[in-house]
Write a structure and sequence with these properties.
It is built from ten helices and 13 strands. By secondary structure, it is an alpha/beta fold. The chain has one domain: 4-Layer Sandwich (Metallo-beta-lactamase, Chain A), CATH 3.60.15.10. The protein has a seven-stranded mixed beta sheet with strand order 1-2-3-4-5-6-7. Strands 8-9-10-11-12-13 form a six-stranded mixed beta sheet, with helices on one face. Strand 2 (38-44) and strand 3 form a beta hairpin. Helix 6 runs antiparallel to helix 7 (231-253). The longest helix has 23 residues, at 231-253. It starts with 20 loop residues before the first helix and ends with a helix.
Length: 294
Amino acid sequence: MDRGTRITLTVFLSTITFGSAQEWRAVEVKTSKIADSIYFMEGILGFGGGNVTVSIGGDGVLLVDNMYDWMMPKLKKAVAEITDKKIEIAINSHFHGDHIQGNKNLKEGGTLVIGHKNLFKRLAAYSSTKPQILDLLPTITFSEHLEIHFNGETVEMIHYPNCHTDNDIIIFFKESKVLHLGDIFFQGMFPAVYTSSGGNIKQLILSLEDILTRFPKDCKVVPGHGRVSTMQELGEYLDMLKKSVQIVENGIKSGKSLEEMVADKVLMEYDDLGNGGAQTTEEYLAMLYGLLKQ
């Protein structure tokens, strides 16, 4: 994702700040090969949705996440430039629209969609007022862990509860050592945590600690937004979360208001992340204050 592109963070349809369809049409899909049979696809020249990991091999094509619905022709074209095989499986990292709106298009083509059971529940709940969301429901759901074998890979799906949302899963391509974290990890920018969707900043920290000890140190890490990273960079992200949470907690304990902490620029050392495309430093500070004041 271009660093200059601004994401508006919302709970489901994940609107973007582009003002016209012309700007939407400008978005392109950039493809990078990150392992023998694994590709990384991202939107460039604008924001088309979250990052996509693609497995291509003898069994066909597997997608992890699939951007917005209007990006599907571009995403499918990018896949077709590599292989003529069918998209057999699509995995949803969580329920936000910038990661899964392509589900409808994929299901109509016979793709099997997999997601966490809480993802199904949340989408189904939204469908009471927006029936079209039923078209996005996954075909297969699971609770804690699901393992499949596809394209010579052991593909593990593991639920980490109450992080960005209550339905986040990570996807590990064991043989290729590629780890797709969805929005548990925002590279080069501040994260978003939604209590209304079951998110919890301290649980996110605990989950990242577990991920860093559980998986090989030489994994390539695909974030929900931002560039492909290393486990070391994921560790640096975790350190930022821990320190920023501690700074805001200390401020709250000392009786400081949000306005005072903003004026004091208590998170100034992370201003580069505030320019990364998601939340500004002040927005991230306000989010932390709201989460930790409860």
